Amino acid sequence: MREFCPELWPELPTPNQYLNCKECGLYEQGTRMVWGEGTSNAPIMVVLDNPGGREDKEGNPIVCGTRQALQRAAFEAGIKKEQLLVTYILKRRPVRKYEKEKTRRICIQHLFEQLKDQKPEYIICLGNVAVQSFFGNESLDVKHLRGDWYQVNGFSVTCSYHPLATRRRPNLYPLLLDDFKLVAQQLNS
Questions:
Q1: CATH code reported for the domain at 16-188
Q2: CA 80, CA 162: separation in Å to the nearest integer?
Q3: Among residues 164, 158, 153, which one has the least CA distance to residue 142?
Q4: In this predicted model, what pLDDT tens digit does every residue of 8-23 receive, in sequence order?
Q5: Measured distance CA(165)–CA(133) in Å, rounded
C-alpha cells in the first residue's frame, strides 16, 4: 500500500502578458506571481484564494500546510497528482492589507482567462473566498454548498473547506475528504 508523502508540484509558467501585471497592486507587496501548480490541462482544477508560502526564510522550497492537506485529501480520495491543477483567485500572495474587493474583481479575470486555456472537466473551489469570487456572490458559503455540483460559466463546480481550515479544525478534514471523493467519483464515472 502506498503511503502519502507531500511533495512540491511543478509550477505552471505565468503567461508572458501577465508577468509584469500591476493592475491589482499586489506587485507592490513584493511577492511573485504564481499562475498555478500541478499538471497543465489536468481534468480537475482546484481553485484556492491565493498562493501560500512557497519558500522558508532561507529561501528553501517548502510544501506549506495548505498544500499538504490538499495533497493528502486528493491522495486518500484516489486522485492522482497528474489529474490536478491548482490555481488561485489572486495570483500573488498578499502579505499586507490590500483592497480585497477591487483586487479580487481584477484578478478573477486572470482565472477566467486560465479556464479558457486549460478547459478542466471539473472544478473544486476550496474556501469561502474562492467560492464567493468564483460564483460571483458574496453571500455564499462552503458549509451550505458542499457535497453537490453546480454549473458556473459552463463548468461543473463543487466546493469544500479550505485545506488550511481543516488543519486548524481537524473535524472538517473528513468533509474535505468526502468532497474530494465526490470529485473522484465524478471523474471515474
A1: 3.40.470.10
A2: 19
A3: 158
A4: 899 999 999 998 899 9
A5: 18
The grid coordinates of residue 32 equal 511573485
CA distance 101 to 42: 29
Strand 84-88 and strand 44-48: the pairing is parallel
H helix intervals, 78-127: 100-118
Cell triple for 168 = 486548524
pLDDT at 83: 98
- DSSP one-letter string for 114-136: HHHHH--SEEEEESHHHHHHHHT
Can you tell me the distance from the alpha carbon of 137 to that of 133, in angstroms, rounded to the nearest whole number? 7
* 34-66 b/e (C-beta count within 10 Å ≥ 16 → b): bbbbbbeebbbbbbbbbbbebeeeeeeeebbbb
Residues of the chain with pLDDT > 90, as a percent, come to 81
Rounded to whole angstroms, the Cα distance separating 32 from 39 reads: 20
Residue spans of the domains in the chain: they are 16-188
CB 180 within 8 A of CB 77: yes
Please write the tens of the pLDDT for every residue from 139-177. Answer: 999 999 999 999 999 999 999 999 999 999 999 999 999
